[in-house]
Amino acid sequence: MRAIVRSSMMLGVTEHSGTTEQRLHDAAARWAAEPDGGPADLIAAACTALVDGLDSPSLRELAGTSKRDPTAHLGELADRALRELGIPLPGEIPPGYFAAAGGGITRRPGTDSLWLAVAPASAPAGDFQVLVHINGTEVTADGAGLGMDPYDLLVPENRLIATAEPRTVPIARCTCGVYGCGSTDVTIVRDGDLVHWEWHGQVPMPHGVSFPAARYDAEVARAAADHSWETPVRTAGRLVLSGIDHEHLRRHGLRADWVANDRLEPETFVVALRFDDEYQVFVDTPWRDRTPEGLAREVCRTLALPPARWTASWHAIRPARTEPPAIAGASWYRKRFW
Q1: First and final CA of the chain: distance in angstroms?
Q2: How far, in Å, CA of 208 to CA of 168, rounded?
Q3: pLDDT digits (tens, 9 = 90+) for 26-76
Q4: Whether the Cβ atoms of residue 112 and residue 135 lie closer than 8 Å to each other
Q5: How far apart are CA 96 and CA 191, in angstroms?
Q6: b/e string for 187-226 if b means 16 or more Cβ within 10 A?
């Protein structure tokens, strides 16, 4: 796992994100989030702020403190210095804004650009990844390392759509293919004629980005509608995930987990579901020379039936559990992986 930060010059980012006030705010935020990391960064930021022309009694005192001073004292000094300079405390700057020169906050201009592309993912993850290009530079590699699978970002819901209600979505995962082993997230929020992204986790750059809303909306819609990268199994998977009755499944305690061809029997298409987070349930459908559209229709017809009428296999997530799920029918059987 890694966290590589590119310079703002490499990413074509305007200098608004580099105000002395914002750098001091960011140092205080890092200190507040991880005080165990030591105060050297915070003290250095205070010294730099003085050199850059900021001045207040508490800022001077903070710059002259020792790394051995009590944690609580340093935190109080940092908060006082920010207040004296008119800089918001950590957590007080809304998405899409930054600490302005002279105090207060100002809106980040929408000068950034976005381009999305789906490309093959390298081993061991395999399959596909959504690459995120900001200002012409691909950034998922500089975050957690690997873009998210399209099923996690674009299908069945386009999670990149921006609304006035902020929401956080995954953008990158570890190069092993597992999200959580390494991760990069963004909080996306619509702010009038702009869309803002704020980074979390393994960040690819030290500040958020802002896009003109109309261009952002067009690019996100284009990426979701572009199926040129799909293989037949991916087309079938998209149609299944978009076409199944998720509410019908929820009424039976089920939710879709993943869809793919069986690794050992690639002529069989598998829908994996979770039942009450206690079981995995697998519904197999043979391809039988069907088109992706034809296969998807058959899968959706099957899953629209009551689960007790399915032919399905099950696997208990807790190995000690030997009884089948409560919804199992006569044609259900236990899945063996060895």
Answers
A1: 31
A2: 13
A3: 999 988 888 887 899 999 999 999 999 999 999 999 999 988 888 888 889
A4: yes
A5: 8
A6: bbbbbeebbbbbbebbbbbbbbbbbbbeebbebbeebbee
Task: Give Dmax (Cα) for the chain.
Answer: 78
- Could you write out the DSSP letters of every residue in 92-144? -SPTTEEEPTTSSEEEPP----EEEEEEEPPTTT-SEEEEEEETTEE-TTTTT
Q: How far apart are CA 328 and CA 64, in angstroms?
A: 69
- In the numeric block, which tokens belong to residue 293? 């559209």
pLDDT digits (tens, 9 = 90+) for 162-197: 999 999 999 999 999 999 999 999 999 999 999 999
Pairing of strands 332-334, 312-316: parallel
Measure the CA–CA gap between 246 and 236, rounded to whole angstroms: 17
CA dihedral 1→126→338→318, nearest 10 degrees, is 50
Its pTM stands at: 0.84
Domain segments of the chain: what residues?
A: 20-99, 114-225, 232-334
> DSSP secondary structure string, 176-223?
TS-BTTBEEEEEEEEETTEEEEEEEES-SSSS-EEEEHHHHHHHHHHH
CB contact set of 223 (below 8 Å; sequence gap of 6+): 116, 117, 118, 130, 154, 160
Residue 70: the pLDDT is 82
Helices 292-303 & 232-243, crossing angle to 10 degrees? Answer: 30
52: which residues sit within 8 A by CB, 6+ positions away?
20
Task: Assign 277 to helix, strand or coil.
Answer: coil
Strand, helix or coil for residue 63: helix
- Residue 80 φ/ψ, nearest 5 degrees: -65, -40
Q: Which two tokens stand for residue 233?
A: 């199994």
CA distance 228 to 88: 46
